[in-house]
Design a protein that fits this description.
The protein is α/β, with parallel strands linked by helices. The protein is built from eleven helices and 16 strands. The strands form four sheets. The chain has a seven-stranded mixed beta sheet. The two termini are about 30 Å apart.
Length: about 350
């Protein structure tokens, strides 16, 4: 388990570590309202598909407990409005939509009084958090078997405790291997433009005593050509039914390089990240973010005022993926059949 809390429910507030301040400050953002939670997701105070799902669930619960009405129809309508606001924050991470559907399902199943429904929604949001932590531990245990002792593992972006309720998906696999007694070293890409690797992955691995070296994104091909990478492990924001993977921009390039150099390319994600209604990667919406993320670093302009394209994610085709690591099993080709088996 990590030595910090990514997100928690406390005294009818949602408290999350402010990832925009890392690694320079370890401070916590306190959400008093569901609008605060929506703002935190938009501004990437909290990010990472599983963590966004937890935040959305807690945001719905936080909004619900502040609704003042004794009319069930009005209450249900207000909860749906709150949910719509949270669903509009970020389009690519499917866990957000999965968590919202789960909260609405709980809402629609309740027959008691409104105060009882509020308590049930808070309980469900906290259950989603606890389940996420346990799911990530299982991903770590399952995936650790794929990582050999004395390996150097390359990861991209941040799919660690900061991206989940705790423990992590891709970094969960690394943590699982370390906990199994294996000697693991990690190469973390800086992950431009938002620097999740430099600011977050390097920070949390170093904080937990796991050996990590930071590289720039354009060093990956060189390092692979020198035989310095034994495996690639990263997370996902959405996985299509056929095994295509949406993940942080730059993932596709790394998959091409890994395939060219014969290096296994593993994707670690919970089953909730698999979108069974999405046939392939072409159907996954790609979020485009503020151009200032490209033209500025830590508020300082580094580029002239020119046109900028800033997609936050790219699609890695399933043929570039060696295996998908879930909490239940490792899935390989053919992915359509293997992923379908997970929900039977």
């Amino acid at each position: 388990m990590s030595s910090f809390k990514t997100i928690e429910w406390k005294d009818n507030r949602v408290i999350m570590i402010d990832q925009t301040k890392l690694p320079n400050e370890e401070v916590y953002f306190q959400c008093q309202t569901y609008e605060d939670v929506a703002d935190a997701i938009k501004r990437m105070v909290i990010r990472g598909a599983p963590a966004i799902g937890v935040a959305a669930a807690m945001g719905i619960a936080l909004g619900a407990i502040k609704i003042e009405t004794s009319d069930r129809d009005i209450f249900f309508g207000e909860v749906h409005k709150i949910t719509d606001v949270l669903l509009a924050t970020r389009p690519t991470a499917v866990n957000l939509f999965w968590a919202a559907k789960r909260m609405l399902r709980v809402l629609n199943e309740q027959q008691g009084d409104i105060e009882g429904i509020k308590r049930r929604l808070v309980l469900e949001a906290n259950n989603i958090l606890l389940e996420d932590i346990e799911i990530c531990r299982n991903i770590g245990r399952v995936g650790a078997e794929l990582i050999e002792d004395n390996s150097v593992v390359l990861t991209h972006c941040n799919a660690g405790a900061l991206a989940t309720g705790g423990y992590g998906t891709a970094l969960g696999v690394i943590r699982g291997a370390v906990e199994a007694g294996k000697n693991i070293k990690v190469l973390a890409t800086e992950t431009r433009p938002f620097l999740q690797g430099a600011r977050l992955t390097a920070w949390e691995l170093d904080k937990d005593g796991i050996s990590v070296s930071l590289i720039t994104d354009n060093m990956v091909g060189h390092i692979m050509s020198r035989g310095m990478v034994d495996a690639v492990v990263l997370g996902a924001d959405r996985i299509a039914k056929n095994g295509d993977v949406a993940n942080k921009i730059g993932t596709y390039s790394i998959s091409v390089l890994a395939k060219s150099h014969g290096i296994p390319f593993y994707v670690a994600a919970p089953i909730s990240t698999i979108d069974y209604d999405c046939p392939d990667g072409n159907s996954i919406p790609i979020e485009e973010r503020n151009i200032n993320e490209v033209t500025h670093i830590l508020g300082n302009r580094i580029a002239p005022d020119v046109n900028v394209y800033n997609p936050a994610f790219d699609i890695t085709p399933s043929e570039n993926v060696s295996s998908i690591i879930t909490e239940k099993a490792v899935v390989g080709e053919p992915f359509t059949e293997g992923l379908s088996e997970l929900i039977k």
